[in-house]
Amino acid sequence: xxxxxxxxxxxxxxxxxxxxxxxxxxxxxxxxxxxxxxxxxxxxxxxxxxxxxxxxxxxxxxxxxxxxxxxxxxxxxxxxxxxxxxxxxxxxxxxxxxxxxxxxxxxxxxxxxxxxxxxxxxxxxxxxxxxxxxxxxxxxxxxxxxxxxxxxxxxxxxxxxxxxxxxxxxxxxxxxxxxxxxxxxxxxxxxxxxxxxxxxxxxxxxxxxxxxxxxxxxxxxxxxxxxxxxxxxxxxxxxxxxxxxxxxxxxxxxxxxxxxxx
Length: 262
Description:
This protein is of the alpha/beta class and 262 residues long. The protein contains ten helices and nine strands. Strand 1 and strand 2 form a beta hairpin. Helix 1 packs across helix 2. The longest helix has 12 residues.
């Protein structure tokens, strides 16, 4: 064990002891372990190497070519669960491997879960991750692949769309920059191109009083909020120092009540 830990530490792995345990658990035999260690030392994300990531206490399948769910996104999942009623219709847009949707559905009794993404590699993992909760997966650009029957029925719409400005992609850690697909990172010139499209397209899909929760940064949250307000939604932002996360929550209007005779 010492040699393995030392090898990982020399490669810059801060949590070398924990990583050594995970690599040993993932290995079928000594030769397999050598291969896994070589991949990790070469800079692959640990989650890609071992084939899973922990998210909200669940094990999510993930692998080469897919975006790794971040711990900060657990804050979005927690906020969504707090707002969801039993039997809620939940849509995970830009779902990647489906971690957000699966985490919400795992805690909301009777949730009807749908997940959509443009990346077929990520969706291969998403299908397996949402299957325990009866989730259905749709491939395509934002709302385009969702079944028409969902229009006006979505109670909880969770979104972790790319929000890194194009010019800042090169500043990301090598594990993300070199091993995750650009489509899961690059949000355009100011990072918010997809946020604007999500906001513009959301109203027809949300149920009356339905919520859209979108992860952003503290710096970008005013622009994300403005896009949602412009779409006719009421908006508030919440932050977590623990998760170093910011989520903008938008709510669709409830139908007007019957008029009262004067």
